[in-house]
Amino acid sequence: MFTDIFNELLKENDLTRSKFATMSGIPYSTIVGWTSLGRLPDFLALTKIADFFHCSIDYLAGRKDEWGNNSDDIIPDSEVRLLKSYRKLDMESRELVCSLCEKLNKRR
Q1: Integer Cα distance of 57 and 62 in angstroms
Q2: Which domains does the chain have, with CATH numbers?
Q3: Nearest in space to 20 (alpha carbons), one of 42, 63, 53, 46
Q4: pLDDT truncated to tens, each residue of the chain (108 aa)?
Q5: Among the four 55, 97, 99, 106, which has the fewest Cβ within 10 Å?
């Protein structure tokens, strides 16, 4: 479960294991242990990963989705795609998206 979630986070953020190691300060050999050898991170590493990807430890453990919902709370795929795309934007682009949403809501 953790390995799948971690690999998906790397992919979504266009990161290699090596680049993540450099950016996070977690040794590359440790990351290889998680992704290739089935090892699990300790609490300190989970905290670093959660902080790095702006997600919860519960999400990393597969207990909740990215937004804190239990697995039985279903978020439509369109909203998931929107949030993932939004998170990849720079701050200026995020502000434009929010402004557009507000204008669209006022038209209703």
Answers
A1: 9
A2: 2-60 (1.10.260.40), 77-106 (no CATH)
A3: 53
A4: 899 999 999 998 999 999 999 999 999 999 999 999 989 999 999 999 999 998 889 889 887 665 555 555 566 778 778 888 888 888 899 899 999 999 998 887
A5: 106
